Amino acid sequence: MAGQIQAVLFDLDGTLIDTAPDFVRIIRQLCDEDGRVAPSEAAIREQVSAGARAMVRLIFGDKFADVADDDEQLLSYRQAFLDRYQADICVDSRVFDGLYPLLELLENQGLPWGIVTNKPRYLAQSLLDKLNLASRCGVLVCPDDVTNTKPDPEPMYLACQTLGVDADRCIYVGDHRRDIQAGAAAGMMTVIAKFGYLSADDLAQLESWGADRIVDTPQQLTQRLKDLIAQP
């Protein structure tokens, strides 16, 4: 990293905000309505960062096991799932315990922070509004804003351009391989949030992702970034 840190960027689901409880609630409702046995909470949490298609496949695995991501029926179920989520997006979602102090630290240091996510903007914006974070977030980059989403570095460069900072002086924190790939491709320092939505396979392969840091807890993330910010 060249010189002092200029900004910190986060993935959204599973990194900055624990959105899984709302997905667990909605998936249980849908399974109950369809007469299906709901997946375990652990199984649902593992799929949140993979997106709505992955969660629909989890619910209706027998129906969509072998279909392509652009299958019309799968996309129809995905939209119905997102509509249900949008209507009740922030009942139980919260900023991960221990990350409010990190945001306050960044703000007190005059360092902008932002979000680069693969979550659609209308959902991401609504979530930030409900958590009173929209006015504090320096930049929000969503798939709607770019041609190529993570793991492509395009969203990372757009975030830096919007903030007026250099990519090689930014830190990106995420809980998915594509987060680390995108951040590294943009020349950022990358940090894996091990407290996020990781599967057993993910945990076994974390070292191969090539991140600069791996943190176990939000509190550890706060301390690591505090140390990095203090470096000349």
Characterise the protein shown here.
Helix 2 packs antiparallel against helix 3 and helix 3 crosses helix 5 (about 70-85). The strands form two sheets. This protein has a six-stranded parallel beta sheet with strand order 5-4-1-6-7-8, with helices on both faces. A two-stranded antiparallel sheet has the order 2-3. It has about 230 residues and is an alpha/beta fold. The model has no long low-confidence stretch (mean pLDDT about 95). About 45% of the residues lie in helices and about 10% in strands. It is globular, with a radius of gyration of 18 Å. It starts with 6 loop residues before the first strand and ends with a helix.
List the helices and strands and how they pair.
Elements: E1 7-10, E2 17-18, H1 20-34, H2 41-48, H3 52-59, H4 61-64, H5 72-87, E3 94-95, H6 100-108, E4 113-116, H7 121-130, E5 139-141, H8 154-163, E6 170-174, H9 177-185, E7 189-193, H10 200-205, E8 213-215, H11 218-230
Parallel strand pairs: 1-4, 1-6, 4-5, 6-7, 7-8
Antiparallel strand pairs: 2-3
Helix pairs in contact: 1-2, 2-3, 3-5
Number of helices: 11
Largest sheet report: 6 strands, parallel
Low-confidence stretches: none
Structural class: alpha/beta
Strand arrangement in the largest pleated sheet: 5-4-1-6-7-8
3D shape: globular
Helix and strand sequence: EEHHHHHEHEHEHEHEHEH
User: What is the CA–CA distance across the termini?
Assistant: 11 Å
What percent of residues are in strands?
5-15%
Query: How many beta-strand runs?
Result: 8
Helix content: 40-55%
What is Rg? Answer: 18 Å
What's the mean pLDDT score?
Answer: 93
